[in-house]
Specification:
The protein is of the alpha/beta class. It contains seven helices and seven strands. A seven-stranded mixed β-sheet has the order 3-2-1-4-5-7-6. The longest helix is centred in the C-terminal third of the chain and has 12 residues.
Length: 183
């Protein structure tokens, strides 16, 4: 029996939630940029839609077909696939982002390797996650466990360790942490 897809169930509601950190993402990802952006675990495309005009092309990769069905396919290219095995050639994207999704993947290290693999030399990878060091996010983590979402939150330092030998920096504010990795 296949596992319940929590994300397909919440996709219609999630698609209506606006991304509120567009300015921070634009600054951290050094947007606008010529070329393509990959939004890994991008779901309905809410983040990609908010920054779409700052890149030539935006691609969403998500394992939940139910989430992808809710994306505005006219200006985003949805691709069904997991972060541990991205269906793209090496060095394909100028920017790779993952917003509020790393804690949902099965294999953090393999997801990190894959995102770095598809990033072009000179490109930036930005991982935005709820900051598990804060009390409010600890409550969210508990709620997701109770909902059987098998979430596993990492601290920003743990995320940075996934990218040994790469240039990295962290920004944290208001319960959110961004890890920026350069290639």
């Amino acid at each position: 029996m296949p596992a319940f897809d929590h994300f397909a169930a919440i996709a219609p509601l999630y698609a209506r939630v606006a991304y509120s950190k567009t300015n921070v993402m634009s600054e951290i990802a050094k947007l606008p940029v010529k070329g393509s952006l990959l939004d890994v675990g991008g779901g309905t495309g809410r983040v990609s839609s908010a920054i779409r005009d700052l890149v030539d092309e935006a691609v969403i990769a998500d394992v939940s077909f139910g989430m992808l069905k809710q994306s505005p396919q006219t200006h985003l290219r949805p691709v069904c696939g997991g972060s541990e095995s991205l269906p793209f050639a090496d060095n394909s994207f100028e920017r790779v982002i993952m917003v509020d999704a790393l804690h949902h993947v099965i294999d953090h290290a393999e997801s990190a390797r894959e995102m770095f693999r598809v990033l072009k030399p000179g490109g930036l990878l930005v991982i935005e996650e709820p900051d598990i060091r804060t009390f409010g996010v600890k409550l969210i983590a508990l709620a997701e466990k109770l909902l059987l979402m098998r979430s596993h939150f990492l601290t920003p330092d743990e995320v940075m360790k996934l990218f040994a030998g790469s240039e990295k920096k962290v920004r944290a504010e208001d319960g959110t942490a961004w890890v920026v990795v350069g290639k």
